[in-house]
Amino acid sequence: MKIYVGNLSKETTEPTLRESFEKYGEISSLNIIKDRDTGQPRGFAFIEMPSDDNARKAITGLNGDSTLGSPLKVNEAKKS
Protein backbone atom coordinates (compact mmCIF):
# COMPACT_ATOMS: atom_id res chain seq x y z
CA MET A 1 0.00 0.00 0.00
CA LYS A 2 1.22 3.48 -0.84
CA ILE A 3 0.94 6.08 1.93
CA TYR A 4 0.90 9.88 1.63
CA VAL A 5 2.63 11.75 4.46
CA GLY A 6 1.98 15.50 4.51
CA ASN A 7 2.80 18.49 6.70
CA LEU A 8 6.41 17.37 7.10
CA SER A 9 8.86 19.77 8.69
CA LYS A 10 11.58 20.95 6.25
CA GLU A 11 14.12 19.37 8.64
CA THR A 12 12.60 15.88 8.37
CA THR A 13 15.15 13.44 6.95
CA GLU A 14 14.66 10.07 5.31
CA PRO A 15 16.23 8.15 8.25
CA THR A 16 13.98 9.95 10.76
CA LEU A 17 10.84 9.28 8.73
CA ARG A 18 11.89 5.67 8.09
CA GLU A 19 12.39 5.12 11.83
CA SER A 20 8.86 6.35 12.61
CA PHE A 21 7.22 4.10 10.01
CA GLU A 22 9.36 0.98 10.55
CA LYS A 23 7.78 0.64 14.00
CA TYR A 24 4.71 -0.58 12.07
CA GLY A 25 6.44 -2.91 9.63
CA GLU A 26 8.66 -3.24 6.59
CA ILE A 27 9.01 -0.30 4.18
CA SER A 28 9.59 -1.13 0.52
CA SER A 29 10.19 2.48 -0.57
CA LEU A 30 10.33 5.97 0.88
CA ASN A 31 10.47 9.16 -1.18
CA ILE A 32 10.58 12.67 0.31
CA ILE A 33 9.43 14.95 -2.52
CA LYS A 34 11.79 17.82 -3.31
CA ASP A 35 11.43 20.98 -5.37
CA ARG A 36 12.90 20.49 -8.86
CA ASP A 37 14.61 23.87 -8.93
CA THR A 38 15.87 24.33 -5.37
CA GLY A 39 16.22 20.73 -4.20
CA GLN A 40 14.48 21.70 -0.95
CA PRO A 41 11.88 19.36 0.58
CA ARG A 42 8.29 20.30 -0.34
CA GLY A 43 6.81 19.06 2.93
CA PHE A 44 5.41 15.70 1.87
CA ALA A 45 6.52 12.17 1.12
CA PHE A 46 5.28 8.82 -0.18
CA ILE A 47 5.98 5.56 1.60
CA GLU A 48 5.18 2.08 0.34
CA MET A 49 4.64 -0.83 2.70
CA PRO A 50 4.20 -4.37 1.34
CA SER A 51 1.66 -5.28 4.05
CA ASP A 52 -1.67 -3.43 3.74
CA ASP A 53 -2.42 -4.35 7.34
CA ASN A 54 0.81 -2.76 8.61
CA ALA A 55 0.23 0.27 6.38
CA ARG A 56 -3.22 0.80 7.89
CA LYS A 57 -1.72 0.54 11.39
CA ALA A 58 0.92 3.13 10.45
CA ILE A 59 -1.78 5.48 9.08
CA THR A 60 -3.85 5.13 12.26
CA GLY A 61 -0.84 5.41 14.55
CA LEU A 62 0.93 8.33 12.88
CA ASN A 63 -1.88 10.54 11.53
CA GLY A 64 -1.82 13.68 13.68
CA ASP A 65 1.45 12.67 15.37
CA SER A 66 3.74 15.63 16.03
CA THR A 67 6.94 13.76 16.93
CA LEU A 68 8.61 15.08 13.77
CA GLY A 69 7.50 18.68 14.36
CA SER A 70 4.13 19.60 12.88
CA PRO A 71 1.12 17.25 13.18
CA LEU A 72 1.44 14.79 10.29
CA LYS A 73 -1.28 14.16 7.75
CA VAL A 74 -1.04 10.46 6.96
CA ASN A 75 -3.43 8.60 4.68
CA GLU A 76 -3.61 6.14 1.82
CA ALA A 77 -2.19 7.74 -1.32
CA LYS A 78 -4.75 8.38 -4.03
CA LYS A 79 -4.38 6.16 -7.07
CA SER A 80 -3.36 8.05 -10.17
Short description:
The protein is 25% helix and 29% strand. By secondary structure, the protein is α+β, with helices and mostly antiparallel strands.
Description of the molecule:
- The longest helix has 11 residues, at 52-62.
- This protein has helices at 14-22, 52-62, and strands spanning 2-6, 29-34, 41-48, 73-76.
- The mean pLDDT is 94.
- It is an alpha+beta fold.
- The protein has a single domain (2-76), classed as RRM (RNA recognition motif) domain (Alpha-Beta Plaits).
- The protein has a four-stranded antiparallel beta sheet, with helices on one face.
- The protein contains two helices and four strands.
- The two termini are 13 Å apart.
- It is globular, with a radius of gyration of 12 Å.
Supply the key terms.
80 residues, alpha+beta, 4 strands, single chain, 29% strand, Alpha-Beta Plaits, 4-stranded antiparallel beta sheet
Record the SSE blueprint.
Elements: E1 2-6, H1 14-22, E2 29-34, E3 41-48, H2 52-62, E4 73-76
Antiparallel strand pairs: 1-3, 1-4, 2-3
Order of helices and strands: EHEEHE
Task: Quickly give the structural class.
Answer: alpha+beta
| CATH level-1 class | Alpha Beta
Q: What composes the largest sheet?
A: 4 strands, antiparallel
Q: Unreliable segments (pLDDT under 50, ≥5 consecutive)?
A: none
CATH architectural group? 2-Layer Sandwich
Count of DSSP-assigned helices: 2
What is the third-level CATH name, the topology? Answer: Alpha-Beta Plaits
Q: In the residues, how many domains can be counted? A: 1
Distance between the termini: 13 Å
Biggest sheet strand line-up: 2-3-1-4
Residue fraction in strands:
25-35%
Q: Over all CA atoms, what is the radius of gyration?
A: 12 Å
Instruction: Please count the beta strands (DSSP E, at least 2 residues each).
Output: 4
Q: Write out the CATH superfamily name.
A: RRM (RNA recognition motif) domain
Query: Share of helix among residues?
Result: 25-40%
Q: Round the mean pLDDT to the nearest integer and report it.
A: 94
